[in-house]
Amino acid sequence: MKTGDWKLAVRNVRRAPGAALAVILTVGIGVAATATIFAVVDALYLRPLPGVERPSELVNVHATSPDGSTFHSVSYPAWKALAAPDGPFSGLSAFSSRLVSVGAGGDPRLAIAQIVTGNYFQVLGSSPTLGRLLNPSDDSPSAQPAAVVSEAAWRDRFGADPSAVGRTVLVNGRAFTVVGVAAPRFTGTFLGQPFDVWLTIGGAGPIAGANVDSPDHAWLELVGRRKPGVSIAMASRALSVMAPRLERQWPIAHRGVGFDVRQTTGFEDSLKGPATAFFTVLAALALLVLGIACANVTGILLARALGREREMGIRAALGAGRATLVRLLLAENLFQFLAGGVVGVAISFWTAPLLERFDLPTPVPFSFHFAPGGRVILFGMAAAALAGLLFGVIPAILATRPDRAAFLREGMPTERRGTSRIRSVFVAGQVAISVLLLVAAALFAQTVRNAAAANPGFSADGLSVASVDLSLLGYDADRARAAFDRLTEGVRRIPGVTSATTATPLPLGLSHRTARVGLPGSPAEGRPSVEIGDVGDEFFETLRIPVVRGRSFNAGDRPGSAPVAVINETLARTLWPGSDPLGRTISAADGSVTVIGVARDGKYRQLWEAPRGFLFFSARQSVRTKRELVVRGGGSPAALAAALRNEWKRLDPALPPAVILPMRKYIGFSTLPQRVAGAVSGALGAVGLLLTAIGLAGLVAYSVSRRTREIGLRMAVGAAPRDVLLLEMRRIGIVAAAGLAAGCVLAGLSTRALAGLLFGVATTDPLTFAAVATVLALTTVLASWLPARRAARLDPLAALKSE
Length: 803
Prior knowledge:
Number of strands: 22
Largest sheet: 11 strands, mixed
Mean pLDDT: 82
Number of helices: 23
Helix content: 40-55%
Radius of gyration: 34 Å
Shape: globular
Low-confidence stretches: 404-415
Oligomer: single chain
């Protein structure tokens, strides 16, 4: 297009500011929806890792098991072998994350630490904000324990004081010297992870755990930098050659173990596949909103272009070719789409950060930054430009048809059948896409509602949960058992608390444990895999899980006494169908236990799971030092939180205060994808419905404006206003019905992809489709009533005289 085309386009747009504003805002809404979702994708997948040099050279290395599964950790000795100079990496580092207690001149608090090899920061190519970073010399057990703190922790805990370097920070009660501050927003290889401190494996001591040097203890994740000229495929082949060497050196620990090399992206590899599918669904919904907006705008532009047929005829009569006329109109349309793109990108700067506020039930809040950057701006403008080319050319072509003489002869134009059909098709398409969006939103809404109303097998109302990890302070099993007894006794004395207990893990929580169990003497490979957990006294009473046979745990089930267990009904039926399980023995990897009770079945991983077996052990007979404290009652959340903080300090002043969550929120993590998808699709569905209503109203208004003389003639020969009203309503009703039918078919086919995310509702649920159809019918009536009523009130004489 020429410069003159753009100048003329701007001049013509300014002549009709109302129509131009409608186009720009409508396009802006559609672009904002797509740009907002793309901002999340950009932050999680495309944005370079902050504080990392040349991230494209970095790869993650995972161990693979003989069954072909991957994403497994490796041992410390295995890392040393893989990091040999003759390997494919210029540097290979190892790390592991830990929930720790951090104190720096104030009360301790929960934080996430990374325990790393000394070359970690060198491999990532990071530079410090202040001081220096960890290096291999810090990894020696004889070196002074050193720590690097995050830039956020430096500002929060040290007031951004440069003298923080050289001061002491307490991690799980152990003193570490702060040697440096990491780069701003540096989170290693995981975006959003709120790491506060980095320690070396050699300097971390007990924080790293026992047996860190054992080849049988796989606890490390690996990240490496490829040597120049070494591709990911070449690195994989090199590690496949090294794997047999490790198996010969450690034949038991590394039997059949291989290695998987993947590009480092800042996103957890094991979650990348499901997350990609999830965001693809959200992106598709956002694109549907953009499609509705474009269809709406096409109708507006078509109406305006057809209103300028005489102008186009005059230009053609004066010698302008059709290509010139199409180019002029396309420039106008494209200019308005680009202006809408600017508005949409501007809106995304407000909407994208709103997604950062989505509350995750984690002990330490994640820190995501979804503010749009350059890629989001380019994407939004590119989407607007592409939509302008695709949808802006149609009105330009239709308004420049070659019947020039007709343009000059016509007074008040009548509605052309072909043009009317095209507008009707666009509006019907809007209705169809709106049906798909609304069906998806309704299905997710029902899933969340069904999940909230589902019976998890226990009473969640009135329960609060707090995670207590005594390993942070180096407690052994005996000290931890005594401490948990004191803690629960103190909590039970809090006014309003009716009962309290501990457990690890909790049903529907973030962690799970499984084991193969069976009858004594049964082959290990044939035993069923069941969920297992350690629970304290009053667990079943506090969660109100009925014990249908036998008894629950009590103070008599202590260390040194016979190991006992409670099983659920499913496991009882599996092991002893039709027989009484009480007093029977179950064999597991850690030994044998005697069944003392049978508890009612519940949900343990997901609310929609099939019944599965569960084996409850007594926490008094467990060696675990981390448990979830479960409290029933306690008054208001604020009062309970204050009382629990006092109990923490009474138990051990160095224990960081735990995050206290209502049980409903705690178990809500199991429906997090559904809640996010429901919120986003609901918002997009509402926007799509609004745009569809505007499109329906615009179609009626356009039809009336093109058929004013026809309507006047009908009324002149005896048609009543009611007849005119019903005629216009019937016209739009046919279009809406066609769109509704197409939308139902489209939704029935497309929502099958959502089946894995739904609970308690079918993808073709008739009530959902009926509800959406009702909403669309009411929207059609309301949107078309006003312009149809205006047509019914036309003065016949004035309509016949109109030009």
